[in-house]
Structure to design on (480 residues):
């Protein structure tokens, strides 16, 4: 570690120690301290939002205080430092340098499947068909993390399968990599007292519990009794002061349940700190297309989530509708990638195609493989950032990239032709396109002014890449 980095880390830790010693009275001063340590161009929008929250004492301020007050102090202090300092303030400049150096995407987070095994069979989930045969070994998971940190990636998210089938190995990885933050999607049925004690001890692991709304919607997709088990797990986590969030798959069947104020209030009452909402995609040859949301349901979610962000102390990400805040599609390693339980390095958790396997190539070589470079050169896939995805908003784009690069299906159950997968999404794309255009150019939309900026939501390396390859985004005024 360079001396300058050690000094910067020490200064950041000192500032956070001051804040955490007495958060509420010190909140107003923490931003001034951080501004003295961190460069002005490092996360300026996020820092501005944080300062505004403190000054206005709004719902975001209430969320921050709730997280700090309800979380076990040792876990809180460790996570704040690990996630903010290692995972972002120090990691981001390193990631940006690597993006410039290698001229490819470098991820902020890596998603990986410790196992294909799962103890549930949820409707429309590809893992339900995968069986229990595939696993990344402990050494393979450890190697991925070590390679990732060399590139500046300090956030790791477990998917599956049910990751907690391997919870002993996951705890060991937390111990081995105390400078990393680990999150895990989980159905919560394997969270018990012993695992809570482990989470308290390692203090760098956060569960994201899968919920489909209330009991009827959750049990309809995940099995009778699952909702009750989720409730027990949440109460257990809350009693130990352990932070956790929720992951929702937004479908045509649960749209009313998820996009409801009652559901958001329920999450807050349970102690949930964040909610990630993923719009259903028919991944897998046998996945039901009837669960795909209608355009009116998606628009409702767009407006509902943004309204709740102004009112509720809950950090909510609507991955399909929030593309404009991050410059479009974040897959292909631009902000994340996915490695399945067989070692296939995939551009997206919903795109089961690859040219590279982590058992055969390095992480960096996988990021420079043909399919990943097609993502790199193609992003953003649409000037309208409400249509960010090469699967669900831009017809045939994923199939075009797969065919052009010779990538193969990595589905562990039944290989699916990329063109057939994209064809299943075509009706939804056609229905959403005019709605997305109407919203995008709406002068009354709160984001309208920011949409004039062709670099909206993009990192400096994104802008330099676009200039280098001659990929010019059309500003909103030109679209109109």
């Amino acid at each position: 570690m360079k001396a300058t980095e050690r000094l910067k880390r020490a200064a950041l830790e000192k500032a956070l120690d001051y804040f955490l010693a007495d958060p509420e009275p010190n909140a107003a001063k923490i931003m001034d301290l951080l501004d003295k340590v961190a460069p002005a161009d490092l996360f300026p929008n996020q820092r501005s939002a944080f300062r505004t929250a403190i000054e206005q004492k709004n719902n975001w301020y209430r969320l921050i205080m709730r997280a700090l007050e309800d979380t076990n102090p040792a876990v809180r202090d460790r996570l704040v430092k690990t996630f903010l300092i290692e995972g972002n303030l120090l990691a981001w400049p390193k990631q940006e340098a690597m993006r410039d150096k290698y001229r490819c995407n470098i991820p902020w987070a890596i998603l990986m499947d410790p196992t294909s095994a799962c103890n549930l069979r949820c409707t429309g989930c590809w893992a339900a068909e995968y069986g229990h045969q595939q696993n990344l070994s402990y050494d393979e998971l450890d190697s991925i993390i070590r390679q990732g940190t060399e590139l500046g990636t300090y956030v790791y998210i477990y998917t599956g399968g049910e990751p907690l089938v391997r919870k002993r190995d996951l705890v060991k990885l937390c111990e081995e990599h105390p400078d990393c933050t680990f999150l895990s999607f989980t159905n919560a049925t394997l969270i018990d007292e012993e695992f809570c004690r482990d989470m308290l001890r390692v203090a760098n692991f956060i569960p994201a519990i899968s919920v489909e709304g209330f009991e009827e919607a959750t049990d309809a997709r995940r099995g009778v009794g699952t909702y009750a088990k989720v409730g027990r797990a949440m109460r257990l986590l809350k009693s130990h002061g352990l932070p956790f969030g929720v992951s929702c798959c937004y479908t045509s069947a649960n749209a009313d349940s998820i996009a409801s104020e009652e559901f958001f209030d329920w999450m807050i009452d349970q102690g949930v700190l964040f909610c990630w909402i993923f719009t259903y995609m028919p991944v897998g040859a046998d996945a039901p297309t009837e669960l795909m949301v209608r355009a009116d349901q998606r628009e409702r979610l767009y407006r509902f989530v943004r309204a709740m962000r102004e009112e509720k102390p809950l950090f909510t990400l609507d991955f399909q509708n929030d593309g404009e805040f991050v410059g479009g599609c974040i897959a292909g390693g631009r902000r994340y990638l996915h490695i399945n339980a067989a070692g296939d390095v995939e551009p997206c958790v919903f795109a089961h195609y690859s040219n590279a396997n982590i058992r055969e190539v390095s992480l960096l070589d996988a990021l420079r493989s043909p399919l990943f470079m097609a993502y790199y050169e193609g992003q953003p896939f649409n000037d309208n950032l409400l249509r960010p995805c090469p699967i669900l908003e831009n017809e045939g784009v994923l199939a075009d990239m797969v065919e052009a690069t010779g990538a193969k299906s990595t589905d562990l159950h039944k290989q699916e032709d990329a063109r057939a997968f994209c064809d299943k999404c075509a009706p939804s794309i056609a229905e959403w396109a005019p709605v997305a255009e109407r919203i995008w150019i709406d002068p009354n939309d709160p984001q309208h002014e920011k949409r004039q900026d062709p670099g909206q939501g993009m990192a400096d390396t994104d802008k330099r890449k676009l200039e280098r390859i001659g990929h010019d985004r059309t500003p909103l005024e030109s679209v109109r």
In short: The chain is about 50% helix and 10% strand. The mean pLDDT is 92. The first strand starts at residue 109 and ends at 112.
